[in-house]
Amino acid sequence: MSRTCDICGKHTVTGNKVSHANNHTRRTWRPNLVKVKTEIGGTTATLKICTRCLKSDFITKKV
Fold first, then answer.
1. How many domains in the chain?
2. Domain range for residue 20?
3. Strands, E, within 1-63: which ranges?
4. Residues whose CB falls within 8 Å of the CB of residue 29, separated by 6 or more in sequence, listed in order
């Protein structure tokens, strides 16, 4: 199970954290993922989607 949005494909990004003294250390940025139950093709499925996709109404949340 990877940290990837099932809708848009947003995933973990790596880069450098740069301090005030210009020291570089590796770090990661993780997407804000939420598990959401939704109905796809008449069946209930649980998807991991980012909050931007949830806010944009790509998926309707099943209550």
1. 1
2. 13-55
3. 13-18, 24-29, 33-40, 43-50
4. 12, 13, 14, 15
Tokens of 24: 């570089």
Secondary structure letter of residue 29 according to DSSP: E
Q: How far apart are CA 29 and CA 14, in angstroms?
A: 6
Q: Is residue 26 part of a domain?
A: yes
Q: pLDDT tens across 20-57, in order?
A: 999 999 999 999 999 999 998 889 999 999 999 999 98
pTM, entire model: 0.80
Tokens linked to 38: 């939704």
With cut-offs at 50, 70 and 90, classify the pLDDT of residue 60: confident
